[in-house]
Amino acid sequence: MDALKQTRVTQFVFLGLIDNWVLEILFFMAFSAMYVLTLWGNILIMVTIVFTPRLSTPMYFFLSNLSFIDICHSSVTVLKTLEGLLFDRKTISFDNCIAQLFFLHLFACAEIFLLTIMAYDRYVAICAPLHYPNVMNMRVCVQLVFALWLAGTVHSLVQTFLTIRLPYCGPNVIDSYFCDVPPVIKLACTDTCLTGMLIVSNSGTISLSCFLALVASYTIILVSLRKQSAEGRRKALSTCLAHFVVVALFFGPCIFIYTQPDTSFSTDKLVSVFYTVVTPLLNPFIYTLRNEEVKSAMKHLRQRRVFS
Fold first, then answer.
1. Do the Cβ atoms of 165 and 3 come closer than 8 Å?
2. pTM
C-alpha cells in the first residue's frame, strides 16, 4: 500500500513504434487493414464452425476458441496503436495502462496454453487414434478451455500485481507503443531487479516451457508418422506444419521479450508486432487455406445463404 501511495504518475506517454510521420501513416494504413482482416477472418472461422455440425470436433472447438482469443488479443493492443499512429500525443492514463497490461497477458497466456492443448489434441489423434474419442471428448475439451482461462487469469493477476506494487513518481515516457510489464516497470522509482526476476520466472518460464512441450509433441508426432499411410502422413504433416508456423511466430517473440525483461533492445518493438498484430492475422489464413474441410464448410454456408 505504501508503494501505491507514492505513485504520482497519472498518465504515461508512448514513444510509439517509429518517429517518422510518413512511416506512421504507412503503418497506420497497414495495421488498419491487418486488423480488419483479423476480425473478418476469425469471425468467419467462428461462424463456420458454429453453424457446421460436422465440424463439432475437439480440433475445431479449440480452433474457434483460438479465433476468439486472437480477436481479443489483437484488439487490446492494435486499437491503441492505431490511435498513437494517427495523433502526435500518444498518451494513456495510468489505470487504462494497467487494464491494457492485464488483458494483454490474459489473452496472451490463454493463447499459449491453448496452442499447447491443440498440440496435445493432434498428438492423441495421430499417435493414439483408437483412444481419441475417450481421451478428447467434449467434456474434457470444455474442462481444458476452462482451465486455460483460469490459468491465464491467475498469470495476468500476478503480472498486474508485480507492476502496480511499484512506485511511479518520476519519468512517464514508455519506450513502446502499448503497455507491457518490462517497459512499464523501468519507470518505477525503485530497484526492479527482483521484479524482473519474477517476470522471467513467470512469463518467461511459461513461454519457454510450453514451447519446449510443443516441440516435443510435434517431434513425437513426426516420428510416429513412419507407421502411417502415405495419405495419412500427408494430412498429418500439413496440419502439424500449419500449427508449428503459428507456434514459431507467436512463441519466438514472447520468449525473446520475457526472458530478458531488464535488457533493452531496439528491436523489441518490432518483435512485439509479430505476436500482437501479425500472428492473429495469420491464424485464420493458415488454418483455413490449408484445411479443405473448413473451406468446404465455408463454401456450403455461402451457397446455403444465397439459396435462402
1. yes
2. 0.87
